[in-house]
Amino acid sequence: MRKTISFILCGCLFKVATAQQQNLIQYVKPIIGTERMGHTFPGATVPFGAVQLSPETDTIPYEVNGKYVPDVYKYCAGYQYTDNTIVGFSHTHYNGTGHSDLGDFLIMPTVGKLQLNPGTASNPESGFRSRFSHSTEVAEANYYKVKLDDYNITAELTTTTRVGFHQYTFPKSDSAHIILDLMYSIYNYPGKDVWTYVHVLNDTTVVGYRQTRGWARNRTEYFAMVFSKPFKSYGYKNFSTNEQYAGFWRRFDVKENFPLMEGHDLRAYFDFSTNENEKVQIKFALSPVSIDGALNNMQAEATAQNFDEARLSGQAAWEEELEKVKIQTLNDSDKVNFYTAMYHAFINPTIYMDVDGSYKGLDQKIHKADGFTNYTTFSLWDTHRALHPLFTILQPKRDDDMVKSMLAHYQQNPIGMLPVWSSYANENWCMTGYHAVPVIADAVIKGINTFDAKEALAACVATADNPLYDNIPAYRQYGFIPDENSDNSVSTTLEYSYDDWTIAQLAKKVGDQKVYDEFIKRSQNYKNVYDSTINYMRPKNKDGVFRKNFDPLETFGEGFIEGNSWNYSLYVPQDVPGMIKMEGGDKAFISRVDKLFTTYLPDKYFEHTEDITRDGLIGNYVHGNEPSHHIVYLYNWTSEPWKTQKTVRMILKSQYHNGADGLGGNDDTGQMSAWYIFSSLGFYPVAPGSVEYALGSPLVKEADMEVKDGKHFIVKAINQSDKNVYVKKVELNGKKLNKPFITQDDIVNGGTLTFYMSDKK
User: Fold this and answer.
1) Is 412 buried (19+), middle (13-18) or exposed (0-12) by CB count in 10 A?
2) Taking 80 as the threshold, does the pLDDT of residue 21 lie above it?
3) DSSP for residue 529
4) pTM of whole model > 0.90?
5) Which residues on adjacent β-strands are paired with residue 743?
């Protein structure tokens, strides 16, 4: 008999049957990717939630005396598995990025002498941080637990969409404290805190906001904080060095039991007396709009729920998402990788609006999402490749809303562009290309859009022609970006060419022949940076002369961003047949791709590039970074597609495993995980903006995918084994496929895709 629980998520009431479900959340291990380069966080969040409540394990600054501190790169998600101290638990995090921000409103419970400095990892007693052991650490979907050894406090975390729930089990003490650190920030530096405001409403309720100037250079986050028991005293310390003028506020003693706290760099504290094993709970609501918004979010999502109820409802929400794909595998280890990949893929983008639909736009005005859910955290250089195509199958309503959010971004953007890397009502301008365009085109071409496709096309064209952005005038004038104009001249030219092709596909879909003709021509610009004398993409100056001194193995300073010419010379997803012809035909192209996977890349070629490490390399192929993710599937356009099958299975096994260091590179808000999901299922979107998927070699024995209108798409692998990595034949609904490709309609209309596996090519 099924048990049904009700919960509120995104302002809506859900009822979920829990008793006879698959219990797929048991396979989610949020600890995967928390060591080395994965940059994931182990804490609690619900699917696409606005709160990501997670531990911070150090306070490495972004810079000291104006000089970048390389160690900070390990802390993009605030947590490194190899650390042995925790400084607290904050409410906002990116998942798997290669740059960072956030870490808002850090909370740390302590007992004993009050300390308001975090101290150092080498000397934890010098501050409020605490040692911890992984033996007491529990990380699950929407639940995190750890013992803070120095204080004998057990910390537990869970969330709803907009509210973080803390539960701290204290020892008996007359000097228990909750520290609210309003200085802490990921990628912190002096002056990042612009202003902080805290208002103590009563002895259980505190509200306020913090404005920061970081990667998002003008970001304000509001909060409401409610304790489960009254605090007996409170206060704060201002650590700012640039607030000399106090005005007539100096007539007050504002540091203790004064209901207003303001300044740049504040740490507040709240004092309690606790009994042995007493649980003190905190509910902490966020809002992008106002204090009232935070209070309303608290009322809507948390007032009627306690900690355990929030945990169960969030885990039920995760279970519902995971059950969109039910798999059978050769072993449980593969299930752990698969469902953790689904978990990571469904963290970002994040919901960015209050329960009433209000959100702040790029114009710094308050807007209301009309008929859609507004999202933020768009790492589009990464996610246009596989994450958003995955959403067109498994999250079509959300993907439609995400595009609507992008179109709202365009309308509210003072320079009239679609997002590049947007976060919290800010454009971060991170990475290259205009990759909102393929996401929008893909949504229209695959028929999931409820937005106006012609208006979307106009936004895409305006973005692609914007004279203010990254050498677009030069690109339009020369058909490529000249070497002297940009350090990334070649890779940006290649990305623009692909993006332009997707605009052409969108124009064709809506019947705009003029735009189609212009952009299909622009999509051939990749040929303008190909040097046929050496068979590599290569920087070229305004006079059309290729750079004289050039090393195609070098990843720094050779005209490419986060990659080398070896990898980028294979980045023409929009015209694979044209690329193969350009590079010498079938046999020459096969040899070229073969060598990519077997050519050893010495460390000297990537030692200056943070996002490429030995962890993510297979030969010279960089799986730990995104520009190469399609390459293994290019064999499907040659006479040897079996090499796709063999190599995909090798990558799945070598680049993903169940340990804390189980990702070969940044997860990049779900792109690495989306590659794993698609490849495990046996197909991959080489060129989003097309309905076509290239086939590979499935890792699953069977998969049941829930697609639109209650239909199911079944993948079966007959004779599946670790040795049987080759595909003898493939049948779609009982009919043999003559080519290694399927379409979006084949998937979303439901049916069965059957792979017959073999150990022989």
Assistant:
1) middle
2) no
3) G
4) yes
5) 692
